[in-house]
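Ticket #4471: structure export looks truncated?
Reporter: QA, pipeline team
Priority: medium

Steps to reproduce: submit the single chain below to the structure queue and open the exported record.
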Amino acid sequence: KTVQVHVLKNHTAVNVHDSTIYVGDKWEAKDNFDSAVDKDGQDVDLKDIIVNDSQKNTEQVGSFDVTYTYEGITSTAKVTVKENQASINVHDSTIYVGDKWEAKDNFDSAIAKDGHKLSFNELKVDDHEKNTSKKGSFKVTYSYEGITSTSTITVKEKPINSQEKYKVVVQYLDEDGNKISDSVTLTGKEGEAYHTEAKKIKGYTLTKEPKNKEGKFTKDSQSVTYVYARKESGNEDAIETTGRSENHSGNSRNKPIPSSTKSYPKTGEETNNLLSAIGVALLVLISGVLIFLKRKKNETND
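Actual output as written to the record:
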């Protein structure tokens, strides 16, 4: 009897690849395994393959081989371990309550594993603890491909001497709103008290004091306005009088006399005239005394 034997192609294969990692990286055999098939060409799982990774060392620069064997078929993958240059450089900082802050303020620089520089936007940032509205601190983490750095931001109360100063403008106006004297600007910190006063302005009288002449400095600008009225000038007009006289010849009759205008001296003029008269009198008196003394002297000499 004759038996026919059919010889089929053996499809058994194990496919792997070489790779490069960096010192400290996590590595597993499956990272270099691609695929495997049995004699019939059916897929084979990695768990059915014998793996020899006894040379594995990811903690120093160098390389190691890994073998994958299935039904007599062996493939080898080479894993090269390079120096890990990855770094993220950040710094701690101190800010004050209410200050504006962004994560990039604490970022200095970053380098990938292979040594190329990274931009801030390539990093993953976790700043969910951020709170600049009260005294305290919060942490921010910066990450890239397993490398993480953390910075601490301390939030302090804003010093009194660094608080912003605010203004109060004091104005001096007439009743028509016109400026009659230079304005005065007061400055102080929020919450501090201020006090304003009226000015003595020649030719004007204060008519209205502002309700906010005293108060406290606030973030909103404030204006304090004193209102004045112009003083009325004195009555310097001439005084007009009318005189009358009686005629005693015959019947008595009152006859009007033409009005005459008489100017009376002002108070200042009266004083000046009196001083002038006293000065003349003193001059005459002194002259008389000197003449008398001179004559007396002459008589004595004779």
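Status: closed, not a bug. The export was complete when the record was re-opened. Leaving a note from the reviewer for reference: The domain at 13-82 is CATH 2.60.40.10 (Immunoglobulin-like).
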